[in-house]
Task: inverse folding
């Protein structure tokens, strides 16, 4: 549906996306992000997907923060791009880095692939993200590690996913996604509304004495509470 309703736009959008993905150093992060939002708007229109955004005012005024959303499916990042006015990058599992379209999107975001089975590589990713967040980049990490496959029900939030944020001492922004899984993971072309809720940021002062597992549990609980309040609205 996304492609069929955008037949006239697809050749132009695909060419431009591929060009930006192959020449990321020619464009600023803001320019690359603006392109992604532009393409994302067309894709959502084609797929008859409405993004219902809440809590944009909770996004920190200064860069150097991290998003921690629940993970429902391949569409999650696209939903958050549409909802978020500020550029961010992603730590993604290596298994999805070569999926067409997502590959180009992640290249434009300078996303970092992580191999959770390789401890040494994972540590390097933690160090790199910590360094970049301290320098003022924003990142998104799915603390569940993989999509829950249970709709709006959350999986376990892993404490290790919060190591970069804790080392960078940055604000943590929980993000609650509702019905994002329905876009790519159901066999339906019905109109769809995906809710994106940016929750109040958790400053370093609030979590500095916590263990990573305690922080993970707190973020998960706040997301679950939001989903329970808005799931059927």
Result:
């Amino acid at each position: 549906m996304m492609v069929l309703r955008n037949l006239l736009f697809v050749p132009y959008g695909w060419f431009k996306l591929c060009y930006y993905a192959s020449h990321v150093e020619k464009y600023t992060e803001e320019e690359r992000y603006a392109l992604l939002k532009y393409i994302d708007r067309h894709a959502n229109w084609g797929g008859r997907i409405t993004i219902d955004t809440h809590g944009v005012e909770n996004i920190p005024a200064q860069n150097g923060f991290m998003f921690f959303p629940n993970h429902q499916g391949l569409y999650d990042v696209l939903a958050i791009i549409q909802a978020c006015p500020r550029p961010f990058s992603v730590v993604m599992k290596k298994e999805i880095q070569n999926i067409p379209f997502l590959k180009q999107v992640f290249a434009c975001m300078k996303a970092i692939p992580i191999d959770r089975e390789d401890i040494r590589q994972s540590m390097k990713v933690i160090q790199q993200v910590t360094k970049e967040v301290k320098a003022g980049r924003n990142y998104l990490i799915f603390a569940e590690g993989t999509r829950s496959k249970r709709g709006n029900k959350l999986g376990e939030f892993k404490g290790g996913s919060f190591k970069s944020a804790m080392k960078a001492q940055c604000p943590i922004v929980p993000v609650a996604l509702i019905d994002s899984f329905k876009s790519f993971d159901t066999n339906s072309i019905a109109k769809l509304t995906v809710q994106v809720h940016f929750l109040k940021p958790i400053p370093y002062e609030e979590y500095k004495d916590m263990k990573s597992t305690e922080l993970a549990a707190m973020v998960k609980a706040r997301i679950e509470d939001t989903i329970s309040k808005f799931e059927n609205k």
Strands lie at 49-54, 66-69, 89-93, 112-114, 139-141, 172-178, 192-198. The first helix runs from residue 10 to 22. DSSP finds nine helices and seven strands in the chain.
